[in-house]
Amino acid sequence: MRKLLVSSALALSLWLTPMAVAQGSDSVRNAQQALKDKGFDPGPVDGVMGPKTHAATRSYQEKNNLAADGRLGAQTLGSLGVEKAAPGTKMKTAGTNVKESYSSGGKQIGEGSKALGSDVKHGEVVDGAKAFGKGVGHGAAKMGVGTGHAAKNAATAVKDKTVDTKDKVTGK
User: What pTM value is reported for the model?
Assistant: First the structure.
C-alpha cells in the first residue's frame, strides 16, 4: 500500500511539474513580449527562460551595448521597459553602454590601423588609407551609438530621480 501511495505521489508530481514550469514567470513573459516587440525572437511567450529567450536576450544586449550575458538582470529588464529600474541602475547601465561601445569601437579602429600598416608595408598606401578610414568610421559609429544609449539612460535616471525626490517632498 505504501509503495502504491509513494508511486502515485511521484507520478502526480511528475505530471504537475511541467504545467507549473509552463506557467512561467510574469517577468520573463513580459521580457519575452518586449523582445518580440523590438524584433528579437525569444520563441513562445510562455514565461520560460529557454535557449531561444537566452539567445534573443543576448542579441538585444549586444545591440543596445549592454553586457551580453543572456540574463534578464535589472539593467536588461529596465532597458526593455519591463521593470522600472532604480535611478542608480540606469546610471550603471549608462556606464555599461559607454564601456561596451568604446571597447568594441576601439577594436574596430585597431583593425583599421592594422590593415593600414599591412597595406603600407606592401606599398598599397591608398588601400591602407581606405582600410583605416573604414575602421575609424565603423569604430566611431559604434561609439556614437553607445554614447547615445548612455545619454538616454542617464537622462532617464535623472528624470526618475527628480520625480522620486519630488514625490517624497510633496508626499504624492
Answer: 0.50
